[in-house]
Amino acid sequence: MASSVPSEGSADDFPGLLLSLLRNPSTTPASSPTHIDIKVTQLPRQSTQPPEITVGFKGGKELKIEVGKRQMKIGDVVEEIARVGRVIEREESLKG
Questions:
Q1: Rounded-to-integer distance, Cα 24 and Cα 35, Å
Q2: Is the pLDDT of residue 68 over 60?
Q3: Domain spans of the chain?
Q4: Closest CA to 9 of 17, 1, 41
Q5: What is the helix, strand, coil percentage profile of the chain, to 5?
Q6: What is the DSSP pairing of strand 53-57 with strand 62-65?
Q7: E-strand stretches of the chain
Q8: Where is this region: Disordered (predicted)?
Q9: How far apart (Å, rounded) are the C-alpha atoms in residues 84 and 86?
């Protein structure tokens, strides 16, 4: 991932910024085992449900991140998704 990932952002900016980082043309192609399926459900502003992100990777693997509970910033989320993507890619290459 790019090193210029913003580390701050308001709650209102979070979904848009994260999606723009993940949909960057430099992300992996759909044929890759680390391809990310992005679906967005935005909670109402007055919701008491803590924010979370579920990322689906090709092959059915999912990553659930409790963003609100862990007080994560955008850069933290992108880093975690990239880390898991690298692990999945390594597992696939070892199966090979």
A1: 12
A2: yes
A3: 14-95
A4: 17
A5: 35, 10, 50
A6: antiparallel
A7: 36-37, 53-57, 62-65
A8: 24-55
A9: 5
